[in-house]
Design a protein that fits this description.
heterodimer, A: seven-stranded mixed beta sheet, elongated, B: alpha/beta
Chain lengths: 378, 261
């Protein structure tokens, strides 16, 4: 077991995800037919032998708690370590909502103090990546860094954010021996092509010290009040680790749509699922049943579906029913969706348990898919 | 069944199922009176007096079970068998033995043909055995695999397909287990393909059970559209173009010996 604990911050900046986040945290959004976004982060941590994981929950965390349960599906139900859900709570100092990750860590100081691991991996959970943190852990320990920042070369696919979203997009300058020499926070035009992935490694006691110092001086921003001054002053040794795995941040409906569609390419499926298993809450569905009128191509289909219509380039989650004569194209249908006979759909995202009655027609645009919220009957 | 056991103040209740008379001689048969009390038990009778076959499911009142097992264990002449010793001893002692007739779906999957049929029963519309009742789930170990993928150009009809499968060929009237790959141009019909098996391009599989982790290589012909069910044993890699005829059972040993066909 690694001497490392994980802290997963589930961010609350979710307005660009429209209906998908009206009832749930970004981390709890269903993706890829049978997962939630957080499954990828959790599985990467567990697969890297990290068995003490704290989840900082923000508003709308009911769905997240329901999904994570005791943590047994990730093997995180042990006696001493395991899974800790850290929702905001009202105290004299805390108004019931975290003002950023540092504030959340300050509120959960006892959890940090109680944990026994020497190091912490602090990560967001608004991205898809299936990787091992082992190489970064090794580099961090070997280099004697105070903080190691995980980054990736910023190709257009990786940085496809909506223009209005300024959600802590940081670009770092990496000098000799992987030392970080500058950081830009939410630039309009970045000077560097190294995108910080919002995953860092730090000694647990140092994290506690930094949190205490910054909060007690009335500051609260991890990026502007911790990383930028420490990088610029050189007071801490901040190093960079280059990650090469597939990585997509899910911040917009378009990003969400594109990631799911990306999975229909075989190369991408190998990148995302090929190396290490991705764990999720199991549902004990039966296999999917294809009836005699089924015509399915280029699609990713979870268990428990019953298909008697045409499905092309789609992601169907568990328990979706597609009636006879229905035609679905380039769409994402979440759990228990019911597409009745003769329905025609294109470029739509149906949240959980959406029913669309016989012979309806709903056609969105590829650049702006139609999103239908949970439990709606059309 | 448990409620019936309690209501009748039974010592033993045995689940029975009416079977066709012609197959009754191959089962343990219960002869009952008008109240379903068991008056006689016959193991595989040549001339059965009833067609109620024991399903091998018993409810015992605890004290009775303990007493008869203890006595049976102390008897050096006993074969220590429920059907041969315990049940006859209980009948001799005039204990209260009742049959409980079960009439829902029940299939003994002890032969290749019946195992294949049980899988095909799931594909009937409506299915003979409905697994979809959300209040009565059938639990199993869940493989940690992504959803299955149906490629462009694949044809999948009247089949059950589960997680981790990758389908590029034609699959009809078949049941596929987790992680099965059906390559482009391969055909799978009326078959059961178990976890981790690959059907390579150009291979044709008909009326066959292919066990776990097999490779049916390019252009193999396994099974036939009519005739008995063919079987490929666990972990077998069939060489390219290999032919397995209807009703034949092939495994690594048989293909390395002489032609399986």
């Amino acid at each position: 077991m690694n001497d490392v604990m994980g802290i997963v911050y589930t961010s609350k900046d979710d307005l660009t995800l429209r209906e998908l986040t009206s009832q749930r945290a970004v981390a709890a959004i269903p993706v890829a037919g049978r997962y939630r976004i957080i499954d990828f982060t959790l599985s990467s941590l567990v697969n890297s032998n990290i068995h003490n994981v704290g989840i900082i929950a923000q508003k709308n965390y009911h769905s997240l708690m329901d999904h994570l349960g005791s943590g047994k599906d990730w093997d995180l139900h042990t006696r001493n370590n395991g899974l800790f859900i850290l929702p905001p709570f009202l105290t004299r100092e805390n108004g019931g909502e975290y003002n950023g990750v540092l504030d959340a860590l300050r509120a959960n100081f006892d959890y940090l103090r109680r944990s026994r691991q020497e190091f912490v991996i602090l990560t967001n959970s608004d991205y898809i990546m299936n990787t091992s943190f082992e190489p970064m852990i090794q580099q961090h320990i070997k280099s004697g860094a105070d903080i190691t920042l995980m980054y990736k070369k910023a190709t257009p696919e990786v940085t496809e954010f909506s223009s209005s979203s300024k959600n802590n997009h940081c670009y770092i300058k990496v000098g000799e021996d992987n030392v970080v020499t500058d950081i830009e926070i939410n630039p309009n035009a970045a000077s560097y092509d190294n995108l910080y992935l919002n995953v860092m490694m730090i000694k647990r006691t140092m994290l506690m010290y930094v949190v205490d110092q910054v909060i007690s001086h009335g500051n609260h921003d991890l990026y502007a009040d911790v990383l930028r001054p420490f990088i610029n002053s050189g007071a801490l040794k901040i190093m960079a680790y280059e990650e090469k795995s597939y990585y997509r941040r899910i911040e917009t409906i378009r990003g969400y749509f594109n990631f799911n569609m990306d999975l229909l390419k075989p190369g991408v499926r190998d990148d995302v699922f090929g190396s290490n298993p991705v764990y999720t809450k199991t549902r004990d569905s039966i296999p999917t049943i294809y009836r005699s009128n089924a015509k399915v191509s280029g699609s990713l289909i979870a268990d428990g579906c019953v298909i008697d219509g045409e499905v092309e380039n789609c992601v169907l989650f568990r328990g979706v029913r597609v009636g006879k004569g229905a035609k679905i194209k380039n769409s994402i249908i979440m759990q228990d969706g019911y597409i009745e006979e003769g329905v025609e759909l294109e470029n739509v995202i149906f949240d959980k348990a959406v029913t669309i009655r016989s012979n309806s027609r709903l056609i969105g645009q590829k650049q702006y898919p139609i999103v239908i919220g949970k439990n709606i009957t059309l | 069944m448990l409620q019936a056991h309690i209501d009748r103040k039974a010592d033993v209740t045995i689940a029975v199922r009416p079977v066709p008379w012609e197959v009754a001689p191959s089962f343990g048969i219960m002869n009952v009176d008008e109240n379903d009390a068991i008056i006689e038990f016959e193991e595989k009778p040549a001339k059965p007096k009833s067609n109620l076959a024991s399903m091998g499911v018993y409810i015992f009142t605890w004290e009775i079970m303990k007493k008869y097992l203890t006595e049976d264990n102390a008897d050096p002449k006993s074969k220590n068998d429920f059907g041969k010793n315990i049940i006859p001893n209980l009948l001799n002692d005039k204990k209260a033995l009742y049959a409980y007739a079960f009439t829902d779906y029940w299939k003994d999957v002890g032969t290749i043909a019946s195992l294949w049929e049980a899988n095909m029963d799931l594909l009937k519309v409506p299915p003979e055995f409905d697994l979809t009742d959300p209040r009565w789930k059938i639990y199993s170990r869940t493989p940690v695999m992504p959803p299955h993928y149906i490629a462009a150009g694949a044809v999948v009809t009247n089949s059950m397909i589960t997680e981790g499968c990758d389908i590029r060929g034609t699959v009809s009237d078949s049941v596929l287990f987790a992680g099965v790959r059906v390559c482009e141009g391969a055909v799978v019909e009326d078959s059961v393909i178990m976890p981790g098996t690959t059907i390579e391009s150009g291979a044709v599989v008909k009326r066959c059970i292919v066990a776990e982790n097999c490779v049916v290589s390019k252009d193999c012909k396994v099974g036939e559209a009519d005739g008995d069910i063919a079987l490929i044993g666990q972990g077998t890699t069939l060489p390219e173009g290999y032919v397995v005829k209807a009703g034949i059972q092939a495994d690594t040993d048989s293909i390395n010996g002489k032609e399986g066909a």
